[in-house]
From TrEMBL:
Domain ABC transporter, first and last residues per copy: 5-230
Protein EC: 3.6.3.-
Protein name: ATP-binding cassette domain-containing protein
The keyword Cell membrane is annotated on this UniProt entry: no
Family classification: Belongs to the ABC transporter superfamily.
Superkingdom in the source lineage: Bacteria
Gene3D superfamilies noted in UniProt: P-loop containing nucleotide triphosphate hydrolases
GO molecular function terms listed in the Swiss-Prot or TrEMBL record: ATP binding; ATP hydrolysis activity
InterPro entries membership: AAA+_ATPase, ABC_transporter-like_ATP-bd, P-loop_NTPase
Protein species of origin: Agathobacter rectalis
Pfam families, A to Z: ABC_tran (PF00005)
Length: 302
């Protein structure tokens, strides 16, 4: 696939504190790419460097094959970074008229982008009376003004209620499909990234610790199960019974969590029957992107 953004060994420090420490990643045309990280991990800093808002200390960034110089604004890139700011005393259309002049695009484009994000073209309501969800839609409309190939959204559902979160998620998915755009999304809502993104990178302490297809990252040749027994269990005895068949991840009273190779649960059940231990209940433990994220962050910190 065509690489639309290429980031190679990018570094950035503030007051001798490393915020980005050799970040390397690439994003293909048409992807919805997720960037995950705890607060202060460097994800917003990386977005600002791509957009030419701040300088990098080292490394190279290419957008659509062209090397970007420090503080150079890439063409055909739209963005929503941090809190959406507008002229509160104007309506949506008048706000976007001002931005259309700044971006040197025809005013006819304003109606197009308002319709695109589901806002009423003829609504005279002042932006100060908009809900957070409506302001976020207006921000995305502004990002689409110059018909960008790449849209960067930094925490696009921040401050929204659950209904607003779903609304913006569905809007992004619709726009990605309908407009065939490349999206880069940062978010602290991991289930959101799992729902929307094709690929994801996890950033911790300024470094990319994992990158890949979401489904591939979550797939594993191992499974975890919670086993509940009729009576209190001796963990040492259970460990000897299981031998190399399974690893005990945790134990509490009459319950244990084990990790096994896929399809081995039948063998585990047989071993306990042979040792006169009755399993009362078996539950498979499913893992989502949040579990994977926390495991990778913990591993990187260690």
């Amino acid at each position: 696939m065509e690489k639309i953004i290429e980031i190679n060994n990018v570094k950035k420090s503030f007051n001798n504190i490393k915020v980005l420490d050799g970040v390397t990643l690439s994003i293909s045309k048409g992807e919805i790419y997720g960037l995950l990280g705890l607060n202060g991990s460097g994800k917003t800093t990386l977005m600002k460097i791509i957009l030419g808002l701040i300088k990098k200390d080292f490394g190279e960034i290419k957008v659509k094959g062209s090397i970007m110089h420090d503080l150079e604004t890439p063409k055909k890139v739209g963005a929503v970074i941090e809190y959406p700011a507008f002229y509160e005393y104007l309506d949506a259309k008048r706000n976007l008229f001002i931005f259309s002049e700044l971006y040197d695009v025809p005013k006819t484009r304003v109606s197009d982008v308002l319709k695109l994000v589901g806002l009423d073209v003829n609504d005279k309501k002042k932006v100060k009376n908009y809900s957070m969800g409506m302001k976020q839609r207006l921000s995305i409309a502004r990002a689409f003004l110059n018909d960008p190939d790449i849209i960067i959204l930094d925490e696009p559902t921040n401050g929204l209620d659950p209904a607003g979160v779903v609304e913006i998620e569905n809007l992004i998915l619709k726009l990605a499909k309908k407009e065939n755009k490349t999206f880069i999304i940062t978010s602290h809502i991991l289930s959101q990234i799992e729902k929307m993104c094709n690929r994801v990178a996890i950033i911790s302490n300024g470094k990319i610790v994992t990158e890949g297809n979401v489904k591939t990252l979550l797939s594993s040749d191992k499974e975890q199960y919670m086993l509940e027994f009729d009576e209190y269990i001796d963990v040492h005895r259970v460990s000897k019974i299981l031998d190399d068949l399974a690893a005990i991840k945790s134990a509490d009273n009459n319950k244990i969590v084990i990790e096994i190779q896929k399809s081995d649960i039948g063998n585990i059940s047989s071993v306990f029957v042979e040792n006169h231990m009755h399993i009362k209940d078996i539950q498979k433990i499913t893992h989502d992107l949040e579990d994977f994220f926390m495991e990778r962050i913990k591993y990187n910190e260690n």
